[in-house]
Specification:
Length: 172
């Protein structure tokens, strides 16, 4: 038993030293791969539908999700002035399944509405895909991390789950 723990610990250390950003597919990642295949719309399509529906604002997150019944949808958040607008969009048809508006009550979201970034979500996607050309991105978010604007992206690259954080101004 002690030897097995040592082997597992050594494997974990090697995995972390080897990059840590890519992990082996879990059951959750397998579900995500199925969702990616089932979606007819892209992340960009979902963002465009949400912005058109909102009328104005800034997309700050988009996530491909699903439910127990097998429906596949995008959850998109748009910040517009003092309002947070959330949309659930059918990933196969583009129809709005649910829309919700509420006042922004989060200081970080207020900061996001008032900031401008040099890079777009598409620029961040290109940076991830330069390193992982076959990756399928399923989650994007504009966020503030340690006072810095960043894009957080999640993708599947074959059997690996990729998580990448990119400076929203420099691309680092």
């Amino acid at each position: 038993m002690k030897k097995l723990k040592g082997i597992l610990l050594a494997g974990l250390v090697v995995g972390i030293l080897a990059g840590g950003a890519a992990t082996v597919v879990s059951a959750d990642s397998a579900k995500q791969a199925t969702r990616i295949q089932a979606a007819s719309l892209t992340l960009s399509d979902a963002k465009a539908i949400a912005l058109q529906t909102a009328g104005s604002g800034k997309v700050v997150s988009v996530d491909l999700d699903g439910n127990k019944a097998g429906a596949v949808c995008y959850d998109v958040t748009v910040l517009d002035g003092f309002t947070e607008k959330e949309y659930k969009i059918d990933a196969r048809t583009g129809s709005i399944l649910k829309a919700k508006e509420e006042p922004i009550d989060d200081n970080e979201d207020m900061q996001l509405t008032q900031t401008n970034v040099q890079l777009t979500f598409e620029d961040a996607e290109r940076i991830l895909q330069q390193k992982y050309p076959q990756a399928k991105i399923y989650d994007e978010e504009l966020d503030i991390k340690a006072g810095q604007l960043v894009y957080k992206l999640e993708a599947l690259n074959g059997t690996q789950k990729i998580k990448m954080t990119i400076d929203a101004n420099s691309g680092n």
